[in-house]
Amino acid sequence: MAALGFRLLFLLSAVGSAAAASGCSSMAFSSNRVYATCVDLPRLSSSLHWSYDNASATLSLAFVAPPAGPEGWVSWAINPSGGGMVGCQSLIAFRQPNGVMGLKTYNITRYGPVAEGPIEFETSGMAAEQSGGVMRLFAKMKLPAGMTEVKQVWQVGSAVATGVPQKHDFKPENLQSLGQLDLIMGSISVSGGGAAPRNKYVHGILNAVSWGILLPIGQLFARYLKTFRSADPAWFYLHVSCQIIGYAVGVGGWATGLILGSRSKGIQYSTHRNIGIALFTLCTIQVSALLLRPNKDHKYRLYWNIYHHSVGYTVIVLGIVNVFKGLQILNVDHKWTVYFIISICTLGGIALFLEIVTWIIVIKRRSDDSKKAYDGSTSGGVQRSISL
C-alpha cells in the first residue's frame, strides 16, 4: 500500500510539473528574446510576455495565441480610452499577401472594417511569426511616463481578405477578452461581462424598438383608426399611449448613447450623433406640444395640425434612418439588419393596405353625403336640395 501511495504521489507530481511546464514560463522565443514577466491569459488560449523599463517607459512584449482559422490573425492592444474594441491602439499579426508573416498597427475608431495606420504609442521592433498552430507578435511600445497600468484587449480572427483582417467571432470568450494589466506588479484583472459591448447593444435595441417600431405604430393609429367613427376617441388614446411609451424608450436609448459617448473620448460618429440629437429635440417638442393642442374649432387648429403632422413624419423617417446607421456602426450580424428591414416592410405593407381602405371609405362616405344633400327626385325629374 505504501508503495502504491508513493507511486500515485509521484504520478500526480509529474502531471503537475508537466502542466506547469506547459504554461507561459516554459516558452522560448526566437532571436534570443527574453521577457521578465508572463501571464497565461484566461481566454482564447493566449499568453502575454513583457518587460517594462520604468526609466524609459518602454514596454517590450510578445503575445502568443492560436488564430481562429489557418488563414486568420491575432491581435493585442492597449485601449487608453476605456474597455472594448473602439479606441484600441492595436497590433495585428497575420500572413501578408506575399505569404510572409507581418505585424501592423491599427487605430480602431469604429466598429467595422479596420484600416492600417499609426497608433498613439511609438512602436519599434515589430515582428511576427507562426509555427505549431500559434502566432507570435513582438513589439516595443513607448508609453507615456507614469502609465504602469493599461487596459489591454486581445483578440483572434479566422480570416484575412486582400490584406485586411476580417471581423472576429462574437462568442463570450471573444467579447470578454479584455481587462487591466499592471506592468510593474505583473498582475491582470479580467473584465467578466463586457459592460461596454452590453451598453452598445442595449442602446441599439432601445432605439430600434422606439424610433423604428413603436413610433411608426403610433402614427398608424392616428392616420387610419380615426377614419372609423366607431374608433373615436379610442384611436387618440392608442396614439398618445404608443407615442409616449416610444418616447420614453427612446429617451432611455438616447441616455445610453450619451454614456457611450462619454466613455469613448475621441471616437465620434457625427452623422449618427447629430440625427440622434435632432430626433430627441423634435420628439420632445412633439410630446410637449400635446399640452398646447387647440380645440377642433379653434382658428389655429389647422396650423397646429400641419406642424404636428410634419414633425411626426420627419421623426419617423429620421428614426428609421438612424437605426440603420446604428446597425452599421455596431457591425452586427447581417441577419439583424434583415430582421429590421422585414419589420419596417411589414409596417409599410400594413400602412399601404390601410391607406387603400381609408380612401375607399372616404370616397364612399363623400358619395353618401352628397346623396343626403338631396331629398330625391320630383315628378319632373328635377332634384331639389334638402333644407339643412
Automatic annotation (TrEMBL):
It is a multi-pass membrane protein. Gene3D superfamilies: 1.20.120.1770. Keywords: Electron transport, Iron, Membrane, Metal-binding, Signal, Transmembrane, Transmembrane helix, Transport. Its cofactor is heme b. Residues 1-20 form the signal peptide. One of its GO terms (cellular component) is membrane. GO terms for molecular function: metal ion binding. Its main location: membrane. Heme b binds at residues 203, 239, 272, 308. SMART domains: B561. Pfam families: Cytochrom_B561 (PF03188), DUF568 (PF04526). The chain crosses the membrane at residues 201-222, 234-255, 275-292, 304-324, 336-362. Residues 172-363 form the Cytochrome b561 domain. Residues 44-157 form the DOMON domain. InterPro entries: AIR12_DOMON, Cyt_b561/ferric_Rdtase_TM, DOMON_domain, UCP037471. May act as a catecholamine-responsive trans-membrane electron transporter. PANTHER family: CYTOCHROME B561 AND DOMON DOMAIN-CONTAINING PROTEIN (PTHR23130). This is Cytochrome b561 and DOMON domain-containing protein.
